[in-house]
glutamate formimidoyltransferase (Sporomusa malonica), 297 residues
Amino acid sequence: MSKLVECVPNFSEGCRPEVIAAITEEVKKVAGVSLLNVNSDASHNRTVVTFIGEPQAAKLAAFNACAKAAELIDMEQHQGEHPRVGATDVIPFIPVSDITMEECVQLANELGQEIAEKLNIPVYLYEAAAKTPARVKLPDVRKGEYEGLKKAISSPERHPDYGPAQMHPTAGATVVGARQFLIAYNINLSTSDVNIAKKIANSIREVKGGYKYCRAMGVMIEDRNMAQVTINMVDYTGTPLHRVFETVKSEADRYGVSVIGSEIVGMVPLQALVDTAEFYLRLEGFERKQVLEENLR
């Protein structure tokens, strides 16, 4: 079996389809890479792209997409609900088959150095690729977001791992790393009070004493006049989706609001959905091999 890596770059553009198409076209051009999903959100003003391929091909596709984003996205004009530090905000590599996390870390370092040298964009490394404990978690790296990092990047403790200690004038900075599979999961509430969403997010996020592997925050979805709990599940096997969902529902009840829906951004492992179905259907003795499509592949 050939080595396969997944790459999930996030771009700070979710409103202009022509820009999104130009960026994803750079991925499609690379032989040995398959584009799996493109998910854009206008309120977050963000697009999550998922592709899979051989390591060097995936690295090339990520670089080309990053270069195109730097050309077309001006962070001085960017506004959106989601935290971000640059036109290409984050590029994680995830091992899929016949490849180790250590190899993905090496890939992240190679890409980070190339982005810094060829595009003059400062690059920070995170998760398994982080060079210091303070940069393992993405929220810590993005502290202050684009506007705050512009001022802080000159401080020694905020110097990038690669590239100049100053932001690119329009593309900002980029975070590159290697990690396990992450599920981006949003839960929408029947209220326009974003403070309720923030309180609920604090009740489930790991750093506030909530669920391990759960990172969350409350945001406002302007075009729907709706508050949202936006969540990153960094290990769905350690904390399953249904447990977080039920807790959000329970917390929402405390504030007199309800959950009106939820959404998964990008790709999701089948096992995460099987685990959820098993919980809600109270299945006994269910096995993944009972899924029809698993037997047809």
The chain is about 35% helix and 25% strand.
